[in-house]
Amino acid sequence: DSDTKDSWTWGDTSGATGLYKEGNARRHSLRVRQAWLQYDPGTVGIKVGHMPLALGNKIFFNHKKFGDDAIVLFADPNKNTHVAGVIAKFREGSTGKSDDADAYVVLAKYKTKTLKLGGDVTYFDDQPAAVHLWNIGLRADAKLAGVTLRGDVELQTGQQEDADVDFRGYAVVLGADFKLGKAKLTLEGGVGSGDDDATDDKEETFQTTLGAHPNAPMYTFIYDYRVNSAAGTKRAGIANTTCARLAASGKATKKIGLKGQIIWLKATEDVSLRGGDKDDNLGFEVDGKVTYKLAKNLKYYVEGGY
User: Fold this and answer.
1) In the chain, helix, strand, coil percent, each to 5?
2) Who contacts 30 (Cβ-Cβ below 8 Å, separation ≥6)?
3) Coil, helix or strand at residue 24
């Protein structure tokens, strides 16, 4: 019968979220997170199959939970440099029609003991929706005397031809991580653009395609993950959101881990989340998490937010 054959509708129930909700995990009872082959003879390699995928700091694209079908061609010219090209299938409609959704990525990374530089260019082509979106990401991390400084800039352009709309979104995130003994303190701030006029020919909200879990850079347990964010939907990440986060994490014992954070949130462009007057004030959120290590590869945790 149809449930035992290797046939299904791609991209319907992947758990992909954000403003673009496509991806192609298995639809029926069997869900395979990873099923891929890799050939890596040396400097150049190839990886083909169904695999978790994400870009950079997971601000624009994060499908680590359910993954996508993809072909990855990669090379390591030297021990510090990594480059790759990716073709990912987000949706396969009818095999006889031009109704697919695909992502094409070129990326490069350079890493030393104290410096990380990276960048990627993504072209996303959704044929039925006539969406042709470009996302350009640039990022850098630097370690200075126990402090890691981080920066990430994402810029978007492109068109939705049927609606005659131009994409003009952006996101910027800056952060610092401090090591205090066995604990880590994080201070981070970011802004994702929003659209101030829904009637013009520009879509200025930062577009995201994320996973069914708390996403960077906020990692909020309630805002965005549990309820609709300022972007008008759940799990859209930093879209139409300005935030600042103070977080701390560490181990109380060898088996018990503790995490806590406070996040200030603001809508980049005014919204009405509960049917009242439009406003940019979203308030604060406080989150906490306690993790207990049951075995080598098994952890139990309790998490909450207010």
Assistant:
1) 0, 60, 40
2) none
3) coil
Measure the CA–CA gap between 128 and 244, rounded to whole angstroms.
37
Q: Is the omega angle on the peptide bond into residue 217 within 30 degrees of 0, that is, cis?
A: yes
Cβ atoms of 133 and 177 within 8 Å: the answer is no
- Residue 210's CB: how many other CB atoms inside 10 A? 32
Q: Are 5 and 26 contacting, i.e. CB atoms less than 8 angstroms apart?
A: no
Name the token pair of 300.
């139990």
- Tell how far CA 239 is from the center of its chain: 11
pTM of the predicted protein model: 0.89
Give bridge partners of residue 283 from the DSSP assignment: 265
Only one residue has tokens 């810029």, namely 155
Instruction: Write out pLDDT tens, residues 225-251.
Output: 898 899 998 889 999 999 999 999 999
- Contact criterion met (CB below 8 Å) for 128 and 155: no
pLDDT in tens, 252-289: 999 999 999 999 999 999 998 777 888 999 999 999 99
